[in-house]
Design a protein that fits this description.
The protein has 151 residues and is α/β, with parallel strands linked by helices. Helices cover 33% and strands 13% of the residues. It has a four-stranded parallel beta sheet, covered by helices on one side. A two-stranded parallel sheet has the order 3-4.
Length: 151
């Protein structure tokens, strides 16, 4: 069985990191014989590989802590996250759905309620954010909301 988790994972944000990691761990615990991976599709951005945070440039005394934090995110992603073999960076809903369909998941999980929030039209062409999965995807879909957002 192949399970895809669609959630935020690429920003250096402690909440996003732990939410993605704990949701992955929960799915792996519930489905120990399955292959569980993060669906590497996003509207914008790249997996952050910075050595220091921009804010630390304005406050040089924060440089060591910033370096340690960003290194921790990088090492944490490398050690704990498994991604889909390909990635898709797009603003087009239909292209994202075709990418997800090509991954041939047996189950798709949307991993946070905040991902269902509508985005400004300038960031997404089409009707909905990609986290509103198309009913045409040929596998079961579920929402596993694990955040405390007001959505």
């Amino acid at each position: 069985m192949k399970i895809g988790l669609l959630t935020y994972f690429w920003e250096n944000n402690i909440g996003q990191f732990w939410q993605a990691l704990t949701t992955l761990r929960a799915l792996r615990g519930c489905f120990p014989d399955a292959s569980v991976e993060l669906v590497n599709v996003r509207h914008s951005g790249r997996i952050r590989g910075n050595f220091i945070a921009r804010a630390a440039l304005m406050k040089p005394w924060l440089l060591p802590a910033s370096y340690r934090a960003l290194k921790g995110f990088r090492i944490g992603r490398e050690q704990h996250f498994r991604y889909s073999p390909d990635e898709c960076l797009t603003h087009d809903y239909d292209e994202a759905m075709r990418f997800i369909e090509r991954q041939r998941y047996d189950l798709l999980i949307v991993g946070a309620d905040v991902v269902l929030s509508p985005l400004p039209e300038t960031r997404v062409r089409g009707r909905l954010p990609l986290y509103w999965l198309s009913p045409n995807l040929p596998c079961p879909k579920a929402l596993l909301a694990s955040s405390a957002d007001t959505t």
